[in-house]
Amino acid sequence: MEVAIVEHDSDGVVWFTIHRPEKRNAIDFEVMDKLEETIAMAEKNDNVKMLVITGTGDEAFCSGGDLSNFQHLQAEAAKQMLEKMGKILYSLLTLPKPTVALINGTAIGGGCELATACDFRYAKGGSKIGFVQGKLGITTGWGGATMLLEKLPYTQALDILLRAERISAEKMREYGWVHAVLPGDNLREECRNLLAPYLSQSVSVLRAYKVAATEKWKNSEFQTRFFAEIARCAKLWGSEEHKRAIESFFKKS
Ligand SMILES: CC[C@H](C(=O)O)C(=O)SCCNC(=O)CCNC(=O)[C@H](O)C(C)(C)COP(=O)(O)OP(=O)(O)OC[C@H]1O[C@@H](n2cnc3c(N)ncnc32)[C@H](O)[C@@H]1OP(=O)(O)O
């Protein structure tokens, strides 16, 4: 079964849907590779105006890294996995086309980092957003904290990271992380309505503004901060606290 579905709309929108509902759309290496390929295609293809990332089903947008795959990774392998996805999210952050996370349900851990790498976040009402890494004895490991601290006011971003709780889409709208809370009766249509004003511009205009908007992140100072976060997470990955947190998750499941 395809782990991700990529669809091209006639109006220039590419829809990337994580398709692992049995694992609440958790991200494994196959999803990473498909996402990397789609981002590279979106960058090169002048017929692509925007990229929307979403998840299959109405329960979860994305539950972050696939713990059944990643729980056994030791130090170096964990660091490589984190860096792999970190590079992909950096390319998403700086993609010269506008991007949207269409949050169709719960977003947890790396799922929140994936959404944060996007320009806009539209969430189905009642969705829960959880930068829960702190409760797992780690920090964000895919650049999520660095991006959050760039995109939200300092206090809001730090509050979200330190409390490591699941927060409603409505509250995250107040924080300015969610840009639209949608009824969700027909999420794609509701999303398309929000994209319409952007899609009336040419791809050259959309590209030019996105390049201007992301210029500030294309420097070694930002990249150093971004990948230092990942190195810190890799150090915590092997901690007893993290191991216990994963064990208790699977005991519950
Ligand atoms: C890799 C680093 C990265 C980072 O932070 O940078 C990370 O993302 S670390 C991982 C952080 N993610 C989590 O801790 C999420 C764990 N999952 C949950 O909290 C819940 O599953 C939730 C809230 C997403 C959904 O809860 P719900 O009650 O609706 O479903 P279940 O918990 O019963 O799960 C159903 C089914 O899916 C499997 N599952 C869910 N999440 C993951 C995951 N991240 N990796 C692997 N598998 C996952 C769960 O085990 C259940 O499987 P089953 O075989 O049916 O028991």
From TrEMBL:
Gene Ontology cellular component annotations, sorted alphabetically: cytosol
Transmembrane segments: none
InterPro entries assigned: ClpP/crotonase-like_dom_sf, Enoyl-CoA_hyd/isom_CS, Enoyl-CoA_hydra/iso
Pfam families: ECH_1 (PF00378)
UniProt entry keywords in alphabetical sequence: Cytoplasm, Lyase
Principal location listed in the UniProt entry: cytoplasm
GO-annotated biological processes: fatty acid beta-oxidation
Main function: Decarboxylates ethylmalonyl-CoA, a potentially toxic metabolite, to form butyryl-CoA, suggesting it might be involved in metabolite proofreading. Acts preferentially on (S)-ethylmalonyl-CoA but also has some activity on the (R)-isomer. Also has methylmalonyl-CoA decarboxylase activity at lower level.
PANTHER family associated with the record: ENOYL-COA HYDRATASE-RELATED, ETHYLMALONYL-COA DECARBOXYLASE
The protein, known as: Ethylmalonyl-CoA decarboxylase
Annotated source species: Parageobacillus thermoglucosidasius
